[in-house]
Amino acid sequence: MLILGIETATEQVSVAIGGHEGVISTFEVARGRRHAEILAPAIQFMCRQADIELCEFGCIAVDVGPGLFTGMRVGLASGKALAQALRIPMIGISSLDLLAFPHRHTDRVVVPVIDARKGEVFWAMYRQVPGGVQQVAAPTVGPVDELVADLLARSQEVLCVGDGAIRYHNEILDGYRCEFGSSAHPSAAPLVQLAHARALREEWVSPRDIEPIYLRLPDAKINWATRGSRR
Questions:
Q1: Which CATH fold topology does 96-180 show?
Q2: DSSP letter string, 129-172
Q3: For labeling, which of 58, 185, 188, 196 is most exposed (least CB within 10 Å)?
Q4: Which CATH number applies to 2-94+186-226: 1.10.357.10, 3.40.50.1970, 3.30.420.40, 3.40.50.620?
Q5: Is residue 190 reached through a cis peptide bond, with omega within 30 degrees of 0 on the bond before it?
């Protein structure tokens, strides 16, 4: 089964094609918040270069967050539209899973940290298991000092990855000594790999059942709630 992976939860737009042969093709670009402009041409370019028609895909995999609201919506809407048009199922995978999976060979606890803006970060924790990683702490959103407090409470050897880890590198190190990886953004390559494993187990869903993981209300809802409380 050929899988099209779409990842737009952070500043980067990433698209990949893969299946039982592994990842066949990957396209990535991080150039501001131009997800809507970049995504469709990126998919067309990759299919053309790989000599693959859209009708050959058997599943669409998408990053369901957490991440930037606008970017996530672009990826989810595009993925759902394609899946509905092609009448194929979908698989949704967390951006935190995608950041952790490439580091599945480390003995350290992997902590993906995504910049949530407004002085906050999204994070979770993973440990190595045969064939991959297992989540050992649920996805959370909060200020960096809450992340540091979480790390101190667990007191384990840690590898922090993601754009949040890069942005708040000094703040994290001030509170907890740990290692940092170079991975800044989730990628569609591990998305395809993880989705293929789930597809083999037929763990897919209808496009209408794919839901984003926000962890925090969109800014518009927060603003309306704040406005209402002032009346």
A1: Nucleotidyltransferase; domain 5 (3.30.420)
A2: ETTEEEEEEEEEEEEHHHHHHHHHHH---EEEESHHHHHTHHHH
A3: 58
A4: 3.30.420.40
A5: no
SS3 of 176, please? coil
Best CA proximity match to 31, nearest among 211, 188, 185, 223: 185
Rounded Cα distance, 2 and 21, in Å:
9
Neighbours of 166 (CB within 10 A): 17
Six token digits for residue 176: 């907890």
CATH topology match: 2-94+186-226 vs 96-180: yes
pTM for this entry: 0.91
Residue 35: which of 57, 67, 1 has the closest Cα?
67
